[in-house]
Amino acid sequence: MVCDAIGAPFYVLNMSTVFREKVIDDFVSEYKAGRTPNPCVKCNSEVRWTAFLRKAVEIGCDYIATGHYAFVERTASGRFFIRKGVDETRDQSYVLWGLTQEELSKTLMPLGALWKSEVREIARKYNLRTAERKESREICFVADDDYRRFVREWEEKRGRQPEQGDIVLENGTVVGRHDGAAFFTIGQRKGLGITHPTPLYVQRLDVGNNRVIVGENDALFKSELIAEDVNWMGMEPTDKPFKADVKIRYMHQPAPATIT
């Protein structure tokens, strides 16, 4: 154990109930609503920085330290914010956007200035068992990385079955059938189970009518979006337009945008 190696107290917290309610239930319900969830965001803001931080305060700690590859910094006005780590192949700032000012004020992220290879070398130096641990980027509660199987089995255990429906073009032409709209994501091409003269991609999910709308690649791209649940981390809320680099997926390259 790492704690044994460095002489630190070791505590075990049972987070199974809150994890199921805040992360897994949300994961399934978001897919059923036609959206693609990021469970790591929910876990960080609803689990790790709630019960974990609460326990740290209870035992007299001033801060919690995490292994995220990111920085916690402070603006001239005193607001805390997350900045990307130096190792962009491991940067985790994206999944930490939901943290509050109070949580950030009590958080340390010592790995932000290190590359993954450097962290492994430090672990080897101190003979930590984690030095050679295999990495995993899959969803921690979906071991085989098959979210469709997970959602299906989760629903079946609760007596719910996915409903079949139509796969249609934007003009309403039916081009195929599906076994459940929750098993599709925007931009998906493979696994549609339909034949067409040109490649088709999932454009949107009409959950109300249980339809999957498909179209050609060019129709996927949009020049604007509406964001919900905004966390004004590094700046005060404003109704004035401003420039920002924006991305909608963890591994996407940020794109310049105007926020209004």
Automatic annotation (TrEMBL):
Signal peptide: none annotated. CDD domains: MnmA_TRMU-like. Residues 161-216 form the tRNA-specific 2-thiouridylase MnmA-like central domain. Pfam families: tRNA_Me_trans, tRNA_Me_trans_M. GO terms for molecular function: ATP binding; sulfurtransferase activity; tRNA binding. Keywords: ATP-binding, Disulfide bond, Nucleotide-binding, RNA-binding, Transferase, tRNA processing, tRNA-binding. GO terms for biological process: tRNA wobble position uridine thiolation. PANTHER family: MITOCHONDRIAL TRNA-SPECIFIC 2-THIOURIDYLASE 1, TRNA 5-METHYLAMINOMETHYL-2-THIOURIDYLATE -METHYLTRANSFERASE. This is tRNA-specific 2-thiouridylase MnmA-like central domain-containing protein. It comes from marine sediment metagenome.
